[in-house]
Amino acid sequence: MREVLAQAAFQLFLERGFERTTVDDIVARAGVGRRSFFRYFPSKEDAVFPDHERCLAEMTEFLAAADDGDPVGAVSDAARIVLRMYAANPEFSVQRYRLTREVPGLRTYELSVVRRYEQTLAGHLRSRFGADGDGALRAEVIAASVVAAHNNGLRLWLRSGGEGDPEVAVDHALAMVREVWGRRDVPATPTAPAAPEVSVVPAAPLAVSGGGGGGGDGEVVVMVARKGTPMWRVVQQIESAVGEN
Amino acid sequence: MREVLAQAAFQLFLERGFERTTVDDIVARAGVGRRSFFRYFPSKEDAVFPDHERCLAEMTEFLAAADDGDPVGAVSDAARIVLRMYAANPEFSVQRYRLTREVPGLRTYELSVVRRYEQTLAGHLRSRFGADGDGALRAEVIAASVVAAHNNGLRLWLRSGGEGDPEVAVDHALAMVREVWGRRDVPATPTAPAAPEVSVVPAAPLAVSGGGGGGGDGEVVVMVARKGTPMWRVVQQIESAVGEN
């Protein structure tokens, strides 16, 4: 019934426009009474986004069961639940994206849904980071970053007409957030793994260099070492990363 | 006239509640005709936030005149324009914050204003980063981070009843975003300063270490070097940072 109503509503929104479709039109098309509509949807807007409540519930459940060791990874994976909901029905998702861009009321509705996802992710991070110090600040900034990255990838796919696999763009975007924040979110608990004495990683070419490409001038290495690490260990690790002997 | 209408509206919202105040009530209190209201405000919601349009215009103007060398700094400073608007009238800002939390329509209105700020900041970053590669992605994620950090500091101050200087919390929050993103936003233009061959910086103690304190076990150094940098230069720089000979 819920599905039938959502489909009837969406067809009418596409045919007549969102504003000119009434709840009476929708129930007439679905062949049910007016009360049935409001039993399933608080408003016309809700019928356009019939899966967000389920998705929010799934996200909350997923996060409650998540491992404590990697909160940024957990909220990134939680965001992917939303992506999969969109990806499950590309045609509907793309049509709805176009409709939403045209109807201000749907855009503000969508903003409030996105805000609820963001608050759900921030709540999880806050519980893991603790309320002391900058825990709440970091939680909110990381949640906003994850949502922005996810939505960037999702929108690329929606604008392309829902062609191909949306996971690629979203994974790429979330990996960027992970790279920036992943190292900073390790909780100060005894369960955290010990940091290696030295770690050296080849990094992407710096944008400031005119050059680029593999092995070119622009390539850099980044090394992180504990103070007091013997110099020979530092040199050893750098040499093996740089390939210089 | 605009100011008189906004004040009359806000007084009535506090006295009777937002929903139960009509535009007729507002114009009666202000002693003007109904049309005057709509000449200044498209809706009742707009009268609650009379300064955001001016603030958005000021932000756009500020960014258009901003130096190209430090886009993350520019959008952080642009966000502070919003803070100053709130800080200019603490009592009104705190009352409005409380009202907004209670009225769903005002909350969604506020979300759409925040989104417009975010898009303004993202647009500036996109224009500086370029549309190639991850420019748009980075622009959106950094804009979302700046907005989340700014709002975290602003909300702390609003929740405290508008006591003290809100700049302290906002500066602290924006500095965190700056630290994370500042190094990654250098535009690939010839005006950017050349990267040093090697740079070594002592970093804060890692949270994973049980120790801590100056010179203790937990301290680390971070080194960034271009590939091809002679090893002696690397060792020289690390030794001078680590203090080991």
UniProtKB/TrEMBL annotation, chains A, B:
Pfam families: TetR_C_14, TetR_N. SUPFAM superfamilies: Homeodomain-like. It comes from the Bacteria. GO terms for molecular function: DNA-binding transcription factor activity; transcription cis-regulatory region binding. Residues 1-59 form the HTH tetR-type domain. Residues 22-41 bind DNA. InterPro entries: DNA-bd_HTH_TetR-type_CS, Homeodomain-like_sf, HTH-type_TetR-like_transc_reg, HTH_TetR, MftR_C. Keywords: DNA-binding. PANTHER family: HTH-TYPE TRANSCRIPTIONAL REGULATOR PKSA, HTH-TYPE TRANSCRIPTIONAL REGULATOR RUTR. This is Regulatory protein. It comes from Streptomyces filamentosus NRRL 15998. The lineage of its organism: Bacteria, Bacillati, Actinomycetota, Actinomycetes, Kitasatosporales.
